[in-house]
Amino acid sequence: MTALVIAMDGPSGSGKSSASRGVARALGLRYLDTGAMYRAITWWMLHHGVDLTSPAEIAARAAEPELTLGVTPDESSVTVDGADVTAAIRTAAVTAAVSAVSAVPEVRARLVAEQRALIGSGDIVVEGRDIGTVVAPQAPVKVYLTASPEARARRRTAELTGTTVEAQRAAMARRDTLDSTRKADPLVMAADAIELDTTELNLEEVIAEVLRLVKERT
Ligand code: C5P
């Protein structure tokens, strides 16, 4: 068997992270969270007072932050210039700002190259928005996870404190629109991806379905 790459794409709240980790654990594969890389660059830009309304300024600074990532399901820590930002990249401020940063082609070019280097020869589950279309179009298994807006907002609300389903639904709709309408590598399902609607499925069922697809396609 050739080295395995499993591409897990989809919008936020579709269940990508938990399912990707679960699949990686079940198969003894590495795990790469590409969203964490966009979040880490965004954290650095906020920390350094970069004007996020200026794509030119974001582009000019895109190469500066140095990232390191843990790439196993149990060790997915992130550092920027040596500082551990694993928790800091999950704050509401970073979540609200990340789509402006991830839309800038210079940011994407840098991170896509780093993601390909981390994928290396494979044996990895990679989650993101453009893995099956841009980062690893040769991946033998591509899953595109979806769920109803209600289910996605409910899941995200359960993970956070001090928010409501309504507020989450509005924030996610805004991020989806930005991510899927940007010019550079928008969120779109790969032609050869399998769409998996997780609205009515629990985590174990999603993992089992992906494992079934892996068996079928490899
Ligand atoms: O998956 P997560 O919600 O952590 O991703 C954060 C943001 O990073 C997304 O809203 C999107 O703007 C960006 N992203 C991306 N391409 C990826 C992964 C994430 O543009 N492959």
Structure description:
The protein has 218 residues and is α/β, with parallel strands linked by helices. It is 49% helix and 15% strand. The strands form two sheets. Strands 2-6-1-7-8 form a five-stranded parallel sheet, sandwiched between helices. Strands 3-4-5 form a three-stranded antiparallel sheet, covered by helices on one side. α1 (16-27) crosses α9. It is globular and about 50 Å long. It starts with a strand and ends with a helix. The structure holds cytidine-5'-monophosphate. Cytidine-5'-monophosphate binds next to α2, α4 and α8.
The CATH homologous superfamily is called P-loop containing nucleotide triphosphate hydrolases
Residues in β-strands, percent: 5-15%
Q: How many domains make up the 3D coordinates?
A: 1
Q: What is the β-strand count?
A: 8
Classification by helices and strands: alpha/beta
What compounds sit in this structure? Answer: cytidine-5'-monophosphate
Summarize the structure.
Strand 3 (67-69) and strand 4 form a beta hairpin.
Label this structure with key terms:
binds cytidine-5'-monophosphate; five-stranded parallel beta sheet; Rossmann fold; alpha/beta; 8 strands; 218 residues
